[in-house]
Amino acid sequence: MKFHGRMDESILVCVYYGPNGERLIRRGHKIATMLDCPLYVLNISRQSREEFDSSQEADLLHWQNLAVEFEIDDLILKTNEDRPIQQVIAEVCNDLNITQVIIGQTAQSRWEEITKGSFINQLLKALPFVDIHVVSVDRQIHVEDHLYEKAIRAYLVDDEGVYRIYFDLPDKFICEGLFYKELSTDFDNGRFKFMYKGKTYEIEVDDGYIHDERIIKELNM
């Protein structure tokens, strides 16, 4: 576990599936870095892990990569939850001595109630000594987000000196990451985002192949 200069503060970021999770995590990381305190990320789902679809698995993988990159103390997954969301958040806060919670103002499906004042009021009542940051995430969405399909899991493979991505798990691969396919194309064109030796990379993919000589050289591939 990462050593922190102070333990009287700790931050919990609540994320749901979709484009805003990374933004909330980055906001939490920025605050935790300034305070030099522990940072946790929480995801709550009414589904079991076995019921996750490919897009949910891709989001989860992305969060795991961010957790490594930002040295997050723990990524907490609460599955098969039928309790009210605010109750689960309050339980985690009490268990980890959380002092600040970060949530998104807008919601995705099951977190729709977060946008209502009643949810915030209930959370404030459950956590009277916790500061709650409600982040507006819609205004932070960039145009580029609308140029790509939902991210899916992919694998970077060395195919006899030619580097390409596979979507089915191969016998051998260099690394695992997320592929963002361009809209309105039948080819596997887009961006591949992955972590390699502790560093995050994002490279262009042309019909499934990687041609960026600079990145290839940097990765010693």
Quickly describe the structure.
The chain is of the alpha/beta class and 221 residues long. The protein has helices at residues 21-35, 54-69, 85-96, 117-126, 213-218; strands at residues 11-15, 39-44, 74-78, 100-104, 131-135, 152-159, 162-166, 175-181, 190-196, 199-205. It has two domains: 11-140, Rossmann fold (3-Layer(aba) Sandwich), CATH 3.40.50; 145-218, no CATH class.
Provide a descriptive summary of the structure in words.
GO terms for molecular function: kinase activity. This is Histidine kinase. Keywords: Kinase, Transferase. InterPro entries: Histidine_kinase_KdpD, Rossmann-like_a/b/a_fold. The protein is of the alpha/beta class. It has two domains: 11-140, Rossmann fold (3-Layer(aba) Sandwich); 145-218, no CATH class. It is built from five helices and ten strands, in the order βαβαβαβαββββββα. The chain has a five-stranded parallel beta sheet, sandwiched between helices. Helix 3 (85-96) packs parallel to helix 4 (117-126). The protein is elongated, with a radius of gyration of 19 Å.
